[in-house]
């Protein structure tokens, strides 16, 4: 029996993580100590585009890329940067931010409203071509 809804999980996560507005991210996104991470499926990036200078990390691989003892570890996650996660609406990124925070990586945050809010605000985007 399901005892918590996805909405419950997201609400709980947002009480424990830092949530940034698009406006707040726009003021810090070019800082060399900040890295934006796009968690969406690659097909979403191909269809909708992405935020310039963001790195695509498939949501299903995030914990493996972060963990230093994983065969899949990526050095970027040992850089000491602040990682700001985003997805389409901010739901996956809220849950991912909490998971990564619980692993011990900090500082981390996510974008309220995700890429949808980013685009709606008129913030810069770029096309993500297929390889």
What is the CATH architecture assignment? 3-Layer(aba) Sandwich
Major beta sheet summary: 5 strands, parallel
Number of domains: 1
Q: Might you state the CATH topology name?
A: Oxidized Rhodanese, domain 1
Q: In angstroms, what is the radius of gyration?
A: 14 Å
Mean pLDDT: 97
Element order: H for helix, E for strand: HEHEHEHEHEH
Just give the CATH class: Alpha Beta
CATH homologous superfamily annotation: Rhodanese-like domain
* Tally of separate helices: 6
Q: Report the β-strand fraction as a percent range.
A: 5-15%
Assembly of the depicted chains: single chain
The rounded distance between the terminal residues' Cα atoms is 42 Å
Apparent shape: globular
Order of strands across the main sheet:
1-5-4-2-3
Q: What structural class do helix, strand and pairing data support? A: alpha/beta
Q: How many β-strands, per DSSP?
A: 5
Descriptors:
alpha/beta; Oxidized Rhodanese, domain 1; five-stranded parallel beta sheet; 131 residues; 6 helices
Structure description:
This protein has one domain (6-120): Oxidized Rhodanese, domain 1. The protein is 37% helix and 15% strand. The chain contains six helices and five strands. The protein has helices at residues 6-14, 22-28, 42-48, 62-66, 91-103, 114-120, and strands at residues 18-20, 34-38, 55-56, 82-86, 108-111. The chain has a five-stranded parallel β-sheet. Helix 1 crosses helix 5. The mean pLDDT is 97.
Show the helix and strand layout:
Elements: H1 6-14, E1 18-20, H2 22-28, E2 34-38, H3 42-48, E3 55-56, H4 62-66, E4 82-86, H5 91-103, E5 108-111, H6 114-120
Parallel strand pairs: 1-5, 2-3, 2-4, 4-5
